[in-house]
Design a protein that fits this description.
about 0% strand; cytoplasm; about 80% helix; Mitotic-spindle organizing protein 1; mainly alpha; elongated; 3 helices; MZT1; cytoskeleton; single chain
């Protein structure tokens, strides 16, 4: 691997680390892997606002399913 490639990888890792720290400060509840996936999707043309809306909807659905599961277990 060339020095230039190493520098590029190092820069990308530093950028992702900074984004992750900002993500934690904003309490987004995104782990590093999910954040990296989102950044990659945005870099490939995904609309950031639409991506945020999808994440919010998935969280609402997950919360609703968890509540249903908890209620179902509680009635047994």
């Amino acid at each position: 691997m060339s020095t230039r490639e190493s520098d590029h990888i190092s820069s990308a890792q530093q950028t992702l680390e900074i984004l992750f720290e900002m993500s934690e400060l904003l309490n987004t509840q995104l782990d590093r892997e999910t954040l990296a996936t989102c950044v990659g999707m945005i870099e490939h043309g995904a609309n950031p606002e639409a991506l945020a809306a999808v994440i919010q909807e998935l969280r609402r659905e997950s919360s609703a399913l968890n509540a249903q599961t908890t209620a179902a277990v509680g009635t047994r």
